[in-house]
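Priority: medium. Attachment 1 of 2:
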């Protein structure tokens, strides 16, 4: 695997920041896949892969899945043919151990992280977005009752599955706890890429189109290290 002209872009953003939506738009814009750890876990569990069975064993014991298992899932996904030109990493790395593992992984292919994007949104706005969020039970696509409603109420545009409101999106105190945990885990990783000169911070409170234009401009303007 050659590292020239390849893009490995990391997207950071708290729940409700629009990170998943932007990852899908970037996937279409740059022709490289969105690699989301949530999808990887679901796929490995569904396919009952060795990694999926390992992850399931930890989850059934109520334990966190070790970084080694998550790293291995990401490495397997990035080694597939559709990721030869790079990937949009969504939800990974979540901690410094994963960030360092990603560096080693890419270095083994003669590549490296080309950019990290942090979509910054205030807590008040995140609360407003999350309490109005709806999720598809089938494909996990996300909608919002005000900002991004489905074409047909309570029905997913992508797969026709039913939409629902997660229990933890109904409780503002629970949302605040999730946001606090996210920031505690992720700020050191954001600082890791900031110190390396790879971080761009984007105002995530603009429209989806405006946020996307800002992200694309930041990516296009950057020279590959």
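Attachment 2 of 2:
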């Amino acid at each position: 695997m050659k590292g020239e002209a390849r893009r490995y872009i990391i997207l950071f953003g708290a729940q409700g920041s629009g990170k998943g939506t932007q990852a899908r738009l970037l996937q279409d814009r740059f022709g490289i896949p969105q690699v989301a750890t949530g999808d990887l876990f679901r796929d490995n569990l569904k396919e009952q892969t060795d990694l999926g069975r390992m992850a399931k064993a930890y989850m059934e014991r109520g334990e966190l899945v070790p970084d080694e298992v998550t790293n291995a899932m990401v490495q397997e996904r990035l080694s597939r043919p559709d990721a030869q030109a790079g990937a949009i990493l969504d939800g990974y790395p979540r901690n410094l151990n994963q960030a360092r593992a990603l560096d080693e992984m890419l270095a083994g292919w003669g590549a490296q992280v080309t950019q990290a994007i942090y979509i910054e949104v205030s807590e008040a706005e995140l609360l407003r977005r999350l309490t109005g969020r709806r999720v598809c039970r089938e494909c996990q696509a996300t909608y919002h009752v005000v900002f991004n409603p489905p074409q047909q109420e309570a029905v997913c545009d992508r797969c026709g599955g039913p939409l629902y409101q997660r229990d933890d999106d109904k409780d503002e105190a629970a949302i605040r706890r999730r946001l606090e945990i996210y920031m505690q885990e992720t700020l050191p990783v954001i600082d890791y890429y900031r110190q390396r000169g790879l971080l761009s911070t984007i105002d995530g409170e603009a429209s989806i189109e405006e946020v996307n234009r800002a992200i694309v401009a930041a990516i296009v303007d950057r020279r590959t290290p």
